[in-house]
Amino acid sequence: MKKFAAFIVLVMVGLSAFSQFSLSGDVLIRSEYRHGYRELPMPEEEAAVFVGQRSRLILDFNTDRVTTKVSFQYRDWE
């Protein structure tokens, strides 16, 4: 798999003189406080606090004939 990914990157870099290659990404951090979700909480129930992260890496490759967009995403919700 690593050899294939390296091959794809080398092909894209080699064609960069004739095309456009861009790399971008985003990170989303989300926190959540749950106490009484969908129904009223019982007196003995404790609240729950979650912090999660989503990271995304976006690869764009454009030529006159081909437009390709590949997005890799990793989610860590607890």
Written overview of the protein:
By secondary structure, the protein is of the alpha+beta class. It has one helix and three strands. It has a three-stranded antiparallel beta sheet with strand order 1-2-3, with no helix packed on it. Strand 2 and strand 3 form a beta hairpin. The mean pLDDT is 81.
In whole angstroms, how far apart are the ends?
29 Å
Number of strands: 3
Low-confidence stretches: none
Give the overall pLDDT as a whole number.
81
Characterize the largest beta sheet: strand count, sense, and whether it forms a barrel: 3 strands, antiparallel
Morphology call: elongated
Helical content band:
10-25%
Radius of gyration: 21 Å
Order of H and E elements: HEEE
| Oligomeric state of this protein | single chain
Label this structure with key terms.
single chain; 78 residues; alpha+beta; 3-stranded antiparallel β-sheet; 1 helix; 3 strands
In short:
Helices cover 17% and strands 51% of the residues.
What is the fold's blueprint, element by element?
Blueprint: H1 2-14, E1 20-34, E2 48-62, E3 67-76
Antiparallel strand pairs: 1-2, 2-3
